[in-house]
Each structure stands twice: as C-alpha cells, then as structure tokens.
Give the backbone structure.
Amino acid sequence: MQAMNKEKQEKFHETFANRGRLLVKCPDRPGIVSAVSAFLFEHGANIIESSQYSTDPSGGIFTLRIEFELEGLSSNIAVLEDNFMPIAGSFEMEWQLSPVTKLKQTAVFVSKEPHCLLEILWAWQSGEMMTDIALVISNHNACRPMAESLGIPFYHVPASKENRKEAEKQQLSLLKEYEIDLIILARYMQILTPDFVSSYPNAIINIHHSFLPAFIGARPYERAYERGVKLIGATSHYVTTDLDEGPIIEQGVERVTHHDHTDELKRIGRSIERSVLARAVKWHLEDRVLVLGNKTVVFS
C-alpha cells in the first residue's frame, strides 16, 4: 500500500519539478499584481494560475496566490526569495515562496471513530492528497490496524482531563521529532490546551460535526435532533483557543426530516464530515487557504 503511494509521489515530483507557488497578503494599493507579475517575468517564470481577492479596494487587505513554472526552480528558489524581498518590503507583504513538490509533513489525531481517518488515508493512498502522513496519534488503539497496514507509525497516547498536560507533552515531542507542518484532527475527541494550539497557529485543522456556529461543543447531533433541525452539517476549521470558533475553511449540509432520529443524523453526518474534512485538508496542502483574522480566503 505504501509503495503505491510512493509511486504516485514520484510521478508528482517528476511532473511538477519546476512548479512554484507564491502567496501574498498585504495592505491593498495599486501596483501589487503588476510588480509581482513583472518580477516573475524578469526571472523567466511562466504564470500558470493566478487568483486574488481584496477585502476592500479602497484600503483593505489584498491576497494573491500564483502558481508558476520556472526551469531549474529547485536550484534557484533561494535566489528568487532574496530578489523578492525588496518588493515584499515596499508593499508590506506577508509572503511565502515555495516549490510545489515540497510536501507538508502531516500528523493525524483520531479517537475511536475511524471514518474521517479512513477518508484521509484513502485520499493519501490514491494520490489525491499530496502530503507525507508521518504518523497517527490516538488516545485509543482502535485505529492502529488502519494506520499500520499502510506502514504509517501509530502512537497510542492516553489523554483525558486528568493527564492532559502530560499527554500533550508527549504529543508535542512526537510532532517535533517528525517535523510536522500540519495536524489533522480526524474526530479527535479531546480539547487541546492553549499552549498546544499556540505551538501550531493556523496549522491544526478540525472537523466539527455541526454546521457552525450552530451547536458548538459536545453532542451536536443530539441537540440538533432535540431542536428539530431540517439541515445538518459539518464544519472544518482551524483550531484556536476559542472552542469551535476558529477560521472556517469548508462546510457541508444535508437535508433531514422528522423521521430521522439521532442515530440516522449521525449516519448522514459521518458522510458529510469525511468529505468536508478532506476538502479542507487538500486546500491547505495546496496553499489555497489564507487566514484573515477569524475568516479565510479559499482560492479555488
């Protein structure tokens, strides 16, 4: 199984060896696109894809995502970064320039329910989600066979209110050891402490089994049934210190009726959760998500 994914990664590296990505966020004013485009042209790059958005053209925040082709990119990336700094400084940019083939190191956290983990593993195995899944961490052993059957290291770290500090210390040590860039909470049913969250700002993606901001917190399906809702949903968002209130990346809904009791809502909801989380993770891995305060810009 792991060999199959390796073959897809090798093909990906071969196909996109000269593909780069430039992300920009800065105060909006005239000349930004012109300056960035001229810079890439002068360095021999060909723009393949470009998306931009401004919160307010008369003084808001401007965001830009560009993919480009440049022969010999891997050996020229440091030069490009150095040469781009004057432009970035003149426009007060927050920016990132990187090869598309530089895959993010990912850790998946899961508890007992496997559906979201299985969706992530399937997307990774099939090559639809280009990342290196470095490890799976769980407070239960139920999902161990799923990870280890694909050659992915699995770590059982018991976690509860009583030992949260000790558990997170062990988890953070593992994340550092594996040089993790992104944490996926695939129905990990533990609340993370502010210290843990602050260690990975805008790099922890959660799936909440509700169409936020409705039914924040525990037992959302039970509360949705009690309220008699006609739509149920799921929300994937970045984790912040405010429970279930981080910047939203993706959401999905499905219509239900009075015939659907709690168990049926959960069955329908699991399908929504899987697809919503997978899309959010894929977009993050492709650098399509930019955070603006407590909102996101998601470039298609």
